[in-house]
Amino acid sequence: MNSLLKQAAYPFNIRRSVQDLITHTDDLVARRHDIARQIEAADRDGGMIPTHEARQWLDRVESARLSADTIRGRYEQRCRMFGGCSLNLWSNYRISKRAAERLAIVRSYEVVPSPITIDPPALAAVNIPIESVQIHSQESILEEALRCITEGPSAIIGICGPGGVGKTHLLKRINNNFVGDSTFRLVIFVTATRGCSVQTIQTQIMERINLNRDGDSVTRANRIVRFLKAKSFLLLVDDLWGGELEMGSVGIPYPLKNEGQLKQKVVITTRSPTICELMNVTTHVKVEVLEDDEARELFMEYNGHKGLYSDPHIGDLAKELVKELKGVASQLIHFGKEMRGRKDPKRWEDAIFVVKTSDTTHLQDEDQLSLKGTIVRNLKVATENMLARSNEVRQKIEIAERNGKTPTNGVISWLRRVDSITSSAEIICGQHQLNLDVSQSAAEKLHEVQECLDNQPSDIVVDVLQTPTEYIPIQSFELRSQNIVLQDALRYIADDSVEMIGIRGAAGVGKTHILKKINNSFHEHSDFQFVIFVTASRNIREQIARRLGINQDDRDAKLVTRISKFLEKRSFLLLVDDLREILDPKEAGIPFPLRNSSEIRQKVVFTTRSEHICGQMAVSKKIKVTCLEQDEAIYLFRQNVDMGILHSSPRIEELANTLAKELSGLPLALITTARAMSSRHHPTGWEDAIREMHDLFRHKDNPLNMEKGVYQPIKFSYDSLRNDTLKQCFLTCSMWPVDQNIRKDELVQCWMGLGLVDEPNIRSSYNEAYKLICDLEAACLLESGPNNDVKMQNVIRDTALWISHGKWVVHTGRVSSGPFRNAGHFPNIFEISPPEILVEPSPANWDLFNNFHWDKAMCVSLMCNSMTKLPTVSIDQDLSELKILCLQQNSLDANIARVIQRFIAVTYLDLSWNKLENIPEELCSLTNLEYLNLSYNFSISEVPKCLGFLIKLKFLYLQGTNIKTIPDGVISSLTELQVLDLLNMYFGEGITMSPVEYVPTILPELGAINNLKEVDIVIEGSFQYELLSQCCNLPLRLVALRKMEQSCALFRLSESIFQDNLLGTTLNYLEVSDSDMNVIEIFRGAEAPNYCFEALKKIELFNLKMLKHIKCFRLSPHDMFPSLSVLRVSFCDRLKNISCTMYLSKLQHLEVSYCNSITQAFGHNMNKSTVPTFPCLRYLSFAYLDGLERICDSDVTFPQLETLKFTGCPNLMSLPFNKGTVPLNLRELQLEDVKLWKNLIWEEEGILDLLEPYLKIKELPTEEELTKALQSMLPFYP
Fold first, then answer.
1. Considering only CA atoms, which of 650, 718, 711, 715 is closest in space to residue 686?
2. Nearby residues of 170 by Cβ (< 8 Å), 6 or more positions away
3. pLDDT digit string (tens) for 771-806?
4. Would you say 773 and 757 are in contact if contact means Cβ atoms under 8 Å apart?
5. What is the value of pTM for the model shown?
6. Which of the 8 DSSP states describes residue 1190?
7. What is the dihedral of CA 141, 145, 146, 152, to 10 degrees?
8. Distance CA 1011, CA 760 (A)
9. In the record, which residues are listed under signal peptide (predicted)?
10. Residue 529, number of CB atoms within 10 A of its CB
């Protein structure tokens, strides 16, 4: 009856039956995964294999899962078709009954078989093929060795004897003796020849016992120990050289156990009794050379001539040869085979001669491994360590001297003692090489060296000195006349009687190029401790101090003293480019008079346009640089013109030579004109250019015309630019100070503000501006500077001002480098201009300012002058033409209001980096303004209502201010606005700043502005974040998300942040800081399968104290961030790793700092066969990561890496490089401690030698320097 009821219930219990089956099956599958992982780990760590029962259980569980999936699929199909209420009871019955039956089977599998793994079946010993050699005297040795192994108590047995006597043959016979024998579970044969490493021996052992060989030597040793510790084994180590075998380092369980059935033995062969002593060998087996009779028998056996010694022709010779072989079995066998069938006595005589003259010392016991050799070797190593430490001390002293310090008497005495001991030790080592008995003196000297090492000053820390010469990239072309000047200069530099050299010549003749070639001549080999290249138009003191690594924070007088003190006892060559006024060497810190002797050489070389300056500077030698001869001029011209155009017509080739002749041999004119002619495809254009240049240079003997003649060819290049826009862009570059590097983003903002670049969207505008920069570089009118900046060559800048003469008034100061000029670690990305005025006013400017003529000027640039007030504007001066006013990087405050209100026609006004505390109302009266930059006036805290009067304003930059309120209606009044930058400064945790209150007000106003192309904004808190996510079509370019509350524990970086796709094409920079999220998830929803942040190039994660993970969900990071090139992660204390960065295909710059939970930065490369890691990464920095032990596994590669830096990572254990993965482009590997470098663990030998040329040791900064570094790590914006 019960059975019938059970059958009847099946159709109605279908849901429960299927659900029970699914639940139990899922639990069983999860357990199967656990067991599979245990089996995998046992295989990886111990070479164990699953039992037959475990394999069966895994297969049955998998079969049960498949059956359950089938039943689940049928059930779900019926649910979809009938909502679970099918009238077909028979189908329900079959599914329910099948589920119940399978459930019973699943429950029967819940007991896991035990054990799940066992040792793999293996042969105790693997037969090693050997030659069948019958040496009767060795049979007794073999028997003795086998008896010691199987019966004796000794754990380590040493077989010792000279080279070639048959030790290896004997050890192989011992191995083969245990084939098929059960005395040992494993017999392992390894070879430890000279130079053999721990890793090599580990590899042989692991191959024999079938263990996973991944990991470093420590990991592998642990794996071997776990496998062998409970097994009987015999380890046979052949030919041990050079020192003891560290069994613990290899992974041999030590001490070896010999208890009951467990037998663990090691047999070594070696030439040195000392090694046997070091290895604690308790049983010694000595293998000697053969006696004469046995030697003759062995030789004859392998020669194959039974009557050899009675042969009338060669018998005596054979005996003599055997005698010379001195009973060495391997040599007897070798020569026996070699002389087989030889009947010619001459051949036997030759063989005897070869043996007599051969070096057979390698067949003898090694003296190097004797006690005497060990003492001398230890002395040599200790002396090398002492010398290395003394070099570190000397480097520290040199660095300290730069900062005005001197070494203590104790340090000087210690260094002298090191020199004395080193000389004595070298003599002892030399005597040892001559086979003299020096063991007693070596032991005494070793004690002295060790005592000296123990007394080393404890406060010495290593730093790296500047390289003697910094290479300067220059255009590569060889000109005979310039090489003559170069050789003359180098000859004078080598002459001790010459102290100062002046290189003079007209503008544009190539003086700077020659001076740079002089600098580069000393790059590889230098007689000077320092070669210093400076530009006269910039602060010479600071350039010298920076080159020498001297702290530049002191006042001028103190800095001069430090430079002078440092250089006075050193050899140096100072190269000063473009000197236009008298230079007092003492004011620059140059010790004067210069010293030149056999020990110290001090030289100064400068270039100038003025003969007068050479006379006033009292130079020892003058070198005149003249224009090029015609053949050189033609060569240089042809090198720089477009070859396609040049060879397009014989007529153009002829005209090109004529035009080159007309340029009077001026290199700068030849280069710029050649580049300009690359756009002229018809001969008539070349003929016009020849006529123009002919008229220009017809009075070339007049020096004034020659000076003008330098400008005219550059103007010709200017006139040849493809359109007026490019010409105006060129002229604007002259507004910056001479020799200043100009950030490309600064140029882009300027050109947009002047209306020179005006594309439909901001991304196109930046792209177009970068193209214009490339055009100017191609025309040689701009040149690339450091950090991807650009700069304008002095003569070209002079030409630009000459072209705009009468319309442009430019009186700029000289920019001085400051701590924020290259802020942070992101060259030209997070770089900002100085937060305080770090400039020197041009001395001539002050007289000009007293009688400054604003009249008729269209553009006035007074940037970088330390001005506290503007030049006076008289009542009668006409300011109607003034459109552009550049006043950035001064000290102007609200007192300018009265003057500035006169500039009613100005459309472009830059007041960034000044000391304004508010926005003057008078400024709001300049109603023609289209561009206004008030960035980095830190005290500005509010926007006045009257700013809304500037209805023509298109560009408003308020970055780096402290603005917290913006009145209603101000932003909406600016109906022409295209760019609004409201990114305020972030001062870091613990520093109170006013909250940004204006966001809810201005977001709707921004949404109503039709022409808007870029918004840069700070969003604080989840409320503002929600408001922003509701705004459509806002062209956000730079965004900072701050103070996201705990409710935002999971932060998704996805298309769902905003309701439209505009963000993907505009967002360029994203900061997430000072927030509480635990996880950042990179996510792309199914509704937007192709969405990505295609314009995003920089991300900064800062002060995210709760952040633990950065995860990618359903996609690769590259798919979401295809253009990301810079990533900076700081102060994320709980973050475990940054593995998500490995596959970012455009990432070039990565910094991680103050993330103390990171022990390994990057995880395992899961796609190593298909997707390369870090394909473009060039700069990688780790700073103050207390927990960092390693970067990654060796399968993570860095093919393009140039710079790798570690600062404050005391627990770093290894670097992920082997011989095949050291980056080919590596230029710098920086650590702060030599000890840390020496303690690193390497996967392969020889890696340290490969990396050492790039090593730079830089000591940890002082507290003051660290404070500045922390300031520089705060987020900065492009």
1. 650
2. 138, 141, 142, 145, 159, 269, 287
3. 999 989 888 888 887 777 898 887 888 888 888 876
4. no
5. 0.59
6. B
7. 140
8. 9
9. none
10. 18
